[in-house]
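Q: Structure tokens for this one, please.
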Amino acid sequence: MSIDACIAHAIHSDLDILEALPEVTDVPVEDLETYVERFVVNVQESLYKVISSRGDRYLRSKDAAGLCATCLESGVSLPPSMLLKMCQTILQLSEMDATFILDTEDGKSLYYVKMTV
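A: Here is the predicted structure, written as tokens:
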């Protein structure tokens, strides 16, 4: 899987907006979608930038803690435990070769996945 796809999946599965942005409860409802979307895009861009420039050795050695520390050091502003979980997800997914097949009628995505066991 590409790093972009791995990061997107990690954000989808591991990012807790209320934990990462406790101030979101004070944002007016009409601004909430834009506020959260901007935050998620910034997190995705930050992670991509750090991982693509400094993360190769952590990906190759499967070192989620090292990748997490590098992201924190580079300014990715997420709670460390959440970021570690995201880094673990990214490492797991980076080992897979997945191809998107289709979205089902009930909103689920179907992928063909090839992985080394």
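A few notes: The CA atoms of residues 17 and 23 lie 10 Å apart. DSSP finds six helices and two strands in the chain.
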